[in-house]
C-alpha cells in the first residue's frame, strides 16, 4: 500500500486508500483524502491545493486494425525471419519498438505517417512478436541486429530509410546511423538519447551507475536463479530511507512549506488482496469473506505486520500465514483445501500491480507548483524470485517523488502514529493543528 503527502502553507495533505490509515494523519493536523477512485481523489486534491490536476482528455488519433494492414516476413538467414506490417507509399519510414512491446505500439503513428505520404514499415523486432527469437545471446549483439536491418532493407529493395526507434530500439537506430550512414536518411529516437560507447567502461558497469536501468541487470540471470540485489547495485536493506531530493535548498526555504504525501494504494493500481482472496474463496467454494476475515484478524502483531516492518522476509512470511489460515480453518470446522496457497494468492496480486499514471501526473504537476512530494510505501524485504518487480517499482518511484519511504526500512507500519511523525520529520513539515 502507498500513501502520498502534499503540504500547502503550513499544512500537509495525506492521501491513502484505507480510511483507517487516515486517522493518525488527521490527529497530527493533516488534511486527508480517502482515495476510492482516482478522479474523485484528484478533484478533492485540486480543491485543497488550488492546482489544476485534471484536464479534459483529447480525442485519440486514428488507430489501425491489424487485419487491415499488409503483413510481411523477410527471411534474414536460415531459421531467422523478421515480421513487419506495411501501410502507405512514398519515402520509407521504419518504426522500431522498445521493450517489451511489438509493432502494435505504433498503431496511432502508422496511419498518420501513411497519410502524410510515407511508406511505413512497423517492425516486430528480433525476439518479439511474430519475428524469430533465437535463444543464443550472440544473436542480439548490436552489430548483428544492425547488419540484419540492412539485410531486411536489401531484400525489400529499399536503398535508404528513415529510422524511428523507441526505448531499447532507440539505441539500435542510433547505431544504424553510426554503422550504416548511407542506408539511413534520417534518425529519430523517443526517450533514448544518443550515448556513445566508452571502451574504458564495461556496459554492465555503466548500467549500474544509472539506477533506472537496474532492472536490466536482473534480466542477466536465468529466471530460476537466486538473485542478489546487492550484486546488482541496489542499496542494502539496512539503509533507513531511500530518498531523492530534487530542488535547491535555498529555493525550498524561500517558499512556504508545501508537501504532498501519497500512500502506495493511491499511486498504484492494485488488484487488492481482498479481491484476490474473494476470487480464491469463489474458486474453492469457501464462505464469502472467510479468508478476508482471517487476514484482518492479524492486527499489528501478526505475520503481515512483522513482514511490513522488515522483521521477516517474504519467504518467511508465507509459512506463518499458511499456519495462521490453517488455524482459522480448524476453528471454523472447514477442511483446508490441498490446493490452497497463501504465497500464490499474494504473488498474483503483487505481480499484477501497475502504476496509476494519472496520480503520478498529479504528483508531477504539484512538484512544478512548488510542492514537496513524498510516497509512503508498505514494502517488505523481498527474498523471493519475483523481487525484480519490486526493484523496478522502486526505481520508478524514486524518479517521480522527492522522498520515498519504505515501511520495512523504518521498522514501522501504518497506522502506527510514529510512522506519520517520521514522514513529517523526513519532509521537514509542520502541519497546523
UniProtKB/TrEMBL annotation:
Species for this entry: Castor canadensis (American beaver)
SUPFAM superfamilies: alpha/beta-Hydrolases, HAD-like
Domain of life: Eukaryota
Domain (AB hydrolase-1) ranges: 91-226
Protein name: Bifunctional epoxide hydrolase 2-like
InterPro entries found in the cross-reference section: AB_hydrolase_1, AB_hydrolase_fold, ACAD10-like, Epox_hydrolase-like, HAD-like_sf, HAD_sf, PGP-like_dom2
GO molecular function: catalytic activity
